[in-house]
Automatic annotation (TrEMBL):
Family stated for the protein in its record: Belongs to the FemABX family.
PANTHER family assigned to the protein according to its UniProt record, in alphabetical order: LIPID II:GLYCINE GLYCYLTRANSFERASE (PTHR36174:SF1)
Protein name as annotated: Peptidoglycan bridge formation peptidyltransferase VanK-Sc
One Pfam family this sequence matches: FemAB
Keywords: Acyltransferase, Cell shape, Cell wall biogenesis/degradation, Peptidoglycan synthesis, Transferase
The keyword Transferase is annotated on this UniProt entry: yes
Ranges that cross the membrane: none
InterPro entries: Acyl_CoA_acyltransferase, FEMABX, PG_Glycine_Bridge_Synth
Species, as recorded: Kribbella koreensis
SUPFAM superfamilies: Acyl-CoA N-acyltransferases (Nat) (SSF55729)
């Protein structure tokens, strides 16, 4: 079969295609280009030369400029949105590389939305308790997805390479995430799947009168103030308020059938105790950002707001609720293990994706950029 053709498409074409798909990452929506306005961006579509009006795949490409020269790293976060079960992925990827090279790219990075392995919550809990396997990847998975190995093999054959685990470019999107399957389930099913502590905390928050509401753009300042306090407590660098204001404007103004974006606020007796950002594209919903109060942790606002988002995802028709990234540590003495323990309490599963892959187009510039990123 001949390669597909590729060309720039409008934001409207891009959004309409995503709206017709069962699932696509919100990082691949045209609105995300506006969020990442410091990057050059374009929407691309693949077409069959024999039927030039039939759109067969789309992607958002973000171009990050190399210092001092007008050359770029072309980045496709959690994309592209193509048929990853295709017998020949080169039909998509060869024209993509040619197009990006013509745009001045010295290399490509993409994150295929293709899972490789899955671990049930109980499997993870047992591994942490056993203390014999310090990394999730060392634990025998409950499910091995054959498509993951197939895609990885094709990418290697096409010249793509997986980034180094420690060195190289700073990690982009997480390779390990935690998800709660929703398809065919009821609210009672979801509660039953949670551990006893989660069920107890949800019940406690309701008894104490925690109220969860949808926020507006005016509530972003309150969200951000709580988010900054959370960053100080949990030792991470917070994003500035304008970033979230830009995100709210860009993502919430996309067509509703393409992307659903919401801000949630949890109050207890008038005090904001938790706030989160939720996104849905097709059947995939995400918990994207979150903040919680230290002063009133005992009212369990975080559990209340997660339960509300999970129920809203279920009622919207989503088939998965995605709590996003986790580290792969299972060491009880590692501070990061608390995150996976919190998410495991939902009764879902850890999922390993194939990760982000690189294709050098200009080896000298690619190597120089790699060195620059490692020295930052």
């Amino acid at each position: 079969m001949s390669d597909l053709s590729i060309r720039t498409i409008s934001a409207e074409q891009h959004a309409a295609y995503l709206a017709a798909q069962p699932s696509a990452s919100f990082l691949q929506t045209p609105g995300w280009a506006a969020v990442k306005s410091e990057w050059k961006a374009e929407s691309l579509g693949w077409f069959d030369p024999a039927a030039p009006n039939d759109l067969l795949g789309v992607t958002l490409v973000l171009y990050r400029q190399m210092p001092k020269v007008k050359r770029y790293l072309a980045y496709l976060p959690e994309g592209p949105v193509i048929d990853w079960d295709a017998i020949d992925l080169g039909r998509y990827l060869r024209p993509l590389a040619e197009h990006c090279l013509a745009q001045g790219a010295f290399g490509l990075r993409m994150g295929p939305p293709v899972p490789m392995r899955r671990w049930r919550a109980q499997t993870i809990k047992d591994a942490i308790a056993g203390g014999q396997q310090p990394k999730l990847g060392d634990v025998r998975p409950d499910v091995i997805e054959p498509s993951g190995a197939t895609v990885a093999a094709q990418l290697r054959a096409l010249g793509w390479k997986a980034p180094r685990a420690v060195e190289g470019f700073a990690a982009g999107q997480p390779q390990y995430v935690f998800q709660v399957p929703l398809a065919g389930k009821t609210e009672d099913d979801l509660l039953t799947g949670m551990n006893q502590q989660w069920r107890r905390n949800i019940k406690k928050s309701a008894k104490l009168g925690v109220e969860v509401t949808l926020g507006t753009a005016e509530d972003l300042k309150a969200f951000h103030a709580l988010y900054v306090l959370t960053a100080e407590r949990d030792h991470f660098t917070p994003r500035p308020l304008p970033y979230f204001q830009k995100m709210y404007e860009a993502m919430s103004t996309q067509p509703a059938d393409c992307c659903d974006f919401r801000l949630y606020m949890a109050y207890h007796e008038g005090d904001l105790v938790a706030s989160t950002i939720w996104v849905r594209v097709g059947g995939h919903s995400w918990y994207s950002y979150g903040a919680s109060s230290t002063a009133k942790r005992d009212v369990r606002g975080s559990n209340a707001i997660q339960w509300r988002m999970m129920r809203d995802a279920l009622s919207s028709g989503a088939f998965v609720y995605d709590l996003r990234g986790i580290t792969d540590t299972l060491d009880p003495n590692d501070s990061h293990v608390g995150l996976i323990q919190f998410k495991t309490g939902t009764g879902g599963e850890a999922v390993e994706y194939v990760g982000e892959w690189d294709l050098p187009l200009n080896k000298a510039l690619y190597t120089a950029f790699d060195l620059y990123m490692r020295r930052r």
